Amino acid sequence: MALTAVREAVASVKSPAPVVEPAVRVRSEQDAADAAGGERKTVTALFADIKGSMDLMEGLDPEEARAIVDPALKLMIDAMHRYDGYIVQSTGDGIFALFGAPVAHEDHAQRGLYAALRVQEDMAKYSAGLRAAGNPPVEIRVGLNTGEVVVRSIRTDDAHTEYTPIGHSMSLAARMQTLAPTGSIVITEQTQKLTAGYFDLKPLGAARIKGVSDPINVYEVIAIGPLRTRLQMSASRGLSKFVGRRAELEQLDKALELARGGHGQIVAAMAEAGVGKSRLFYEFKTRRQSECLVLEAFSFSHGKASAYLPVVDLLKTYFRIADRDDERTRREKVTGKVLALDRALEDTLPHLFALLGIPIGDAGLEEMDPSIRRRRTREAVKSLIVRESLNQPLMLIFEDLHWVDAESEALLQLIADSIGTAQILLMVNYRPEYRHNWGNKSYYTQLRLDPLGPENAAELLTAMIGDAPALAPLKATIIERTQGNPFFMEEMVQVLFDQGVLVRDGVVVSIAKPLTSIQIPSTVKGILAARIDKLASADKDLLQSLAVIGKEFPIGLVRRVVGKPDDELA
Three-state DSSP class for 394? Predict the structure, then answer.
């Protein structure tokens, strides 16, 4: 095998710098104190390695071996970084990555599986290039597990901070990798509970793991599944009763009537995670969708690096493009729909094709200045939407703008500026940290959703578990712990059923065993941890100190514990 042939096979992949195990040395007594501490986090750990790397490199010159292996390692690392994974360790033939630490993410398990599927897909393409050059393919195996760890930070000689997770969960992830057949992804039941539905998973049965007393159920990750959002997950289990949003629905009704009369409207629902922004839109859409065309776009916490991700999904729905459609079918669906709508929109086709990944063979478009191309792409999508609204009213829904990518946000701004005289109701939702400049528009309305009050929260719980007098103390505890957040309430009830504290006999729910404590569900932990990690360092330190003291305390006690003056504490 010639070195030249190998290099030609991997020409499209730049080799990274040499990868070695991190050498961590504690420089001072203060560093030693930092290393001795740590922060408890729930994370998803991923191990990946090249299967049979020793056999692959046998008989090769070291430079030839590196020309094959280093691009493979770079593909692994790039896939992890794409979903904000942290590389704990990179060895000669594999990686160890964390999702959810050092910075917490509420969807760390999903990010881990997205990264695993991405690296397997990229590796398959890379191996095809190697085969074409007459070289052996590179195949990897991936294992993941989710669980609690203590993450320690250690400063190294070059002032770089490295993070090391400690806990049994890491060992289980490594074991999953050794169980994985070549070219596959294997996960534990802990990860499966957080990702089932979002991904297609194949049960592999129970496996005995060294160092673990009981067999562990393991699963193979096959592909991305049908569910995309938490609301879709809730719907698959059966939606709980919708309570407490009558005034908001009435405002949406008024906005739709104005839009149907040619006075386009923007309605924004703002609330913290879990309060019910998406559920409000779902209920309104369900009630009024027979009166207009509904188009939806969803942003995801891992999607900011992917330009137009929610817009592409919206267009696929509009053009009725299925994943199984080949290139010719996609092209025909887009062309037919656009020309039937208005032949004056023919100039938008190349830009729509490019957005949807349909080869266009247009040298002029490919050579166009990027800023001009982006502007014309946005104009193409906006023109399509506004023209469609001449035929029928549109309900245009953009979910979770706090996660939206920059290109989609620019398109949304363009649409917002263009709907004042269109039959379009633009509905958006976001968390309080998101900022926009639509507040001065006469056709803009903001709905601030608060957690449910005691009466509505009690009504929701009664619908979920019944009204038996014996359940009253438990209901009060749940409401107090969740502060009326509907999603938190639903997840807490689900955990109580999973733990066997609550049992259902037909329609009757009863308490089956004493409730010693209510655990925070993993899904809720992720949301809270992600919010806490976004705080400034000083605020986070103060919050952690207050969490030890309790929910109520005299300010003098806090002053003595944290050693800060009153003006800072205020």
Answer: strand
pLDDT band at 37 (very low <50, low <70, confident <90, very high): low
CA atoms of 223 and 239, how far apart (whole Å) = 26
Residues of the chain with pLDDT > 90: what percent?
Answer: 62
pTM summary value: 0.86
**What whole-number distance in Å separates Cα of residue 470 and Cα of residue 41?**
35
CA–CA separation, 401 and 279 (whole Å): 16
Q: C-alpha 287: how far from its chain's center?
A: 28
* DSSP H stretches of helix in 343-405: 349-355, 363-367, 370-391
Pick the CATH number of 238-448 from 3.40.50.300, 2.102.10.10, 3.90.1150.10, 3.40.50.1220: 3.40.50.300
Can you tell me the distance from the alpha carbon of 77 to that of 73, in angstroms, rounded to the nearest whole number? 6
State the average pLDDT over residues 395-407: 96
pLDDT tier for residue 158 given thresholds of 50, 70 and 90: low
pLDDT for 14 beyond 70: no
The CA distance from 47 to 97, in Å, is: 7
Name which of 43-47, 359-363, 455-459, 492-496 the model is least confident about.
Answer: 359-363
Residues forming beta bridges with residue 242, ordered by sequence position:
none
pLDDT value for 56: 61
The pLDDT score that the predictor gives to residue 57 is 61
Between CA 556 and CA 560, with CA 557 as vertex, the angle to 5 degrees is 85
pLDDT of residue 6: 36
3-class secondary-structure state, position 289: helix
Range with lowest mean pLDDT among 250-254, 370-374, 399-403, 483-487: 370-374
3-state SS record for 228-243: CCHHHHHHHHCCCCCC
Backbone angles phi, psi at 221, to 5 degrees: -85, 120
Instruction: Quickly list DSSP for 5-69.
Output: HHHHHTTTS---S----------SHHHHHHHH--EEEEEEEEEEEETTHHHHHTT--HHHHHHHH
- Nearest to 190, CA basis, from 503, 527, 526, 486: 526
pLDDT digits (tens, 9 = 90+) for 307-325: 999 999 999 999 999 989 9
Q: Distance between CA 30 and CA 46 in Å, rounded?
A: 31
- Largest pairwise CA distance in the chain: 79
Residue 232 in contact with residue 196, Cβ under 8 Å?
Answer: no
Pairwise CA distance, residues 81 & 84, whole Å:
5
N- to C-terminal Cα separation, the chain: 70
What dihedral do alpha carbons 374, 379, 380, 381 form, nearest 10°? 100
In DSSP terms, which residues pair with 145 in a beta bridge? 45
Do 394 and 295 meet the contact criterion of CB atoms below 8 Å apart? yes
Question: Per the structure block, which two tokens stand in for 67?
Answer: 């020309």
CATH architecture of 3-226: 2-Layer Sandwich (3.30)
Contacts of 169 (CB under 8 A, 6+ apart): 43, 45, 145, 146, 147, 148, 149, 190
Tell me 477's DSSP state.
H
